[in-house]
Automatic annotation (TrEMBL):
<dbReference type="Pfam" id="PF07690">
    <property type="entry name" value="MFS_1"/>
</dbReference>
<dbReference type="InterPro" id="IPR051788">
    <property type="entry name" value="MFS_Transporter"/>
</dbReference>
<dbReference type="GO" id="GO:0016020">
    <property type="term" value="C:membrane"/>
</dbReference>
<dbReference type="InterPro" id="IPR020846">
    <property type="entry name" value="MFS_dom"/>
</dbReference>
<feature type="transmembrane region" description="Helical">
    <location>
        <begin position="203"/>
        <end position="225"/>
    </location>
</feature>
<dbReference type="GO" id="GO:0022857">
    <property type="term" value="F:transmembrane transporter activity"/>
</dbReference>
<feature type="transmembrane region" description="Helical">
    <location>
        <begin position="270"/>
        <end position="288"/>
    </location>
</feature>
<dbReference type="InterPro" id="IPR011701">
    <property type="entry name" value="MFS"/>
</dbReference>
<keyword id="KW-0812">Transmembrane</keyword>
<feature type="domain" description="Major facilitator superfamily (MFS) profile">
    <location>
        <begin position="7"/>
        <end position="378"/>
    </location>
</feature>
<feature type="transmembrane region" description="Helical">
    <location>
        <begin position="136"/>
        <end position="157"/>
    </location>
</feature>
<feature type="transmembrane region" description="Helical">
    <location>
        <begin position="73"/>
        <end position="90"/>
    </location>
</feature>
<feature type="transmembrane region" description="Helical">
    <location>
        <begin position="42"/>
        <end position="66"/>
    </location>
</feature>
<dbReference type="InterPro" id="IPR036259">
    <property type="entry name" value="MFS_trans_sf"/>
</dbReference>
<feature type="transmembrane region" description="Helical">
    <location>
        <begin position="325"/>
        <end position="346"/>
    </location>
</feature>
<protein>
    <submittedName>
        <fullName>Major facilitator superfamily MFS_1</fullName>
    </submittedName>
</protein>
<feature type="transmembrane region" description="Helical">
    <location>
        <begin position="96"/>
        <end position="115"/>
    </location>
</feature>
């Protein structure tokens, strides 16, 4: 029997590694844009592959988690995740990059569903909320990965060399912490086949809309913060990654604090405040596009987006009518539409009327987090779900 402490350490290590992989990709997006001479619209089309792959992976991820157990999916998925990252770095043209980003998105969401299923089962065994802290490790890794990305740019190492280093680190982490996960009994019920077409109940639908707005803003910051620093702020090359670093660092801090804040003030108030924080940070960055003001604005956005996904998942896991993996998958499906639409939408609008206008739209989307929480607050309780 694997002890709770060992399971939590292993889960934390894998959350950290997935965050490191993702931020390693995101921190070098400006390099790919420059390497392949991509316009904002063309870059948006390339970036569309990641959330599209994530969305299309949902039925496969949900089926695999229930059929084989989340432990098996985590182990296979993370091994492939670090390998595909190297493939991204190896891209010789924009088409190959698009294909690899698509696959990266698919495997990434396999990890999202399976690793969160493990984490929420662990949370139930603990008897208290720990998901925020685990997501905090993902964001902390994003902060670290962005810093490493900045260092790699400074050292003039190519994305391929950068990602090869991350690949080696990933293999070590997987080997060391592979035994810290528990097996689950495979579910061979027929309902799994129709899972992705099942209509979510009203509460899960509203939770999904909160996640939709939050993840659209996350996609904006993941994929476009570096481009914004480069094109709008016109920051020196060595400062271009600092906006993303500020965002990810603030998100990490916010997620470590999310569990305590939710316990003290309630999940509803924390989520409502999150939307206001996102809106304020983006408006500040648009109004005063100077380096240090934008860094502070992105920091506010990081604090705002921090609690949205963990709290939505924790609320979804309280479902009494559906297994944890299915409830998460339903909320994730709706949420990932935001991740799907956000980055390419920003690119297309930027091509049309400018990148600042795209960020202005995202500020309103952030405010919609507060709106959807207000609409659904009466049902966002464990008993109501």
């Amino acid at each position: 029997m694997v002890q709770l402490k060992t399971r939590r350490i292993s889960a934390g290590a894998f959350f950290f590694l997935t965050g490191l992989c993702f931020s390693s990709w995101a921190s070098r997006i400006p390099d790919f844009q420059q390497k392949f001479s991509l316009s904002e619209g063309q870059l948006g089309s390339v970036l569309l592959g990641l959330p599209l792959g994530s969305l299309l992976a949902l039925p496969l991820a949900t089926w695999a988690v229930i059929k084989f157990g989340s432990r098996s999916v985590v182990m296979v998925g993370l091994s492939l995740y670090v390998l595909v990252l190297v493939g991204i770095g190896f891209s010789m043209d924009a088409f190959f990059l698009s294909v690899m980003v698509f696959i990266f998105g698919m495997i990434g969401n396999m990890m999202n569903i399976s690793l969160n299923t493990q984490a929420l089962n662990l949370e139930k065994d603990y008897g208290r909320n720990i998901l925020g802290s685990l997501h905090g490790l993902w964001s902390l890794a994003g902060f670290a990965g962005a810093g490493v990305g900045g260092l790699m740019v400074y050292l003039q190492l190519s994305p391929y060399q950068h990602y090869a280093i991350i690949f080696l680190v990933g293999l070590i982490v997987i080997f060391i912490f592979r035994n810290g996960f528990v097996d689950e009994v495979p579910d061979k019920t027929s309902s799994v086949r129709g899972l992705v077409w099942r209509k979510p109940d009203e509460t899960l639908l509203k939770l999904g809309m909160v996640g939709f707005c939050g993840m659209m803003c996350e996609g904006c910051m993941f994929d476009w913060s570096g481009v914004y620093m480069n094109k709008v702020v016109q920051a020196p090359a060595y400062l271009v990654p600092t906006g993303y670093i500020a965002y990810m660092g603030a998100m990490a801090i916010g997620r470590f604090a999310a569990d305590k804040l939710a316990h003290r003030f309630g999940m509803i108030r924390v989520l409502q405040g999150s939307g206001i924080m996102i809106f304020t940070g983006l408006i500040l960055s648009i109004t005063y596009p100077q380096v240090w003001v934008v860094i502070f604005g992105f920091l506010m956005v990081g604090l705002g987006t921090a609690a949205v996904v963990p709290l939505c998942f924790s609320l979804a896991a309280n479902s009494t009518s559906l297994p944890t993996g299915i409830a998460i998958a339903m909320v994730s499906t709706i949420s990932f539409f935001g991740f799907l639409l956000g980055p390419p939408l920003i690119g297309f609008i930027a091509e049309w009327i400018g990148l600042k206008a795209s960020f202005a739209l995202m500020s309103l989307v952030g405010l919609m987090v507060t709106f959807w929480v207000w609409v659904g607050k009466k049902s966002f309780t464990p008993k109501a779900i």
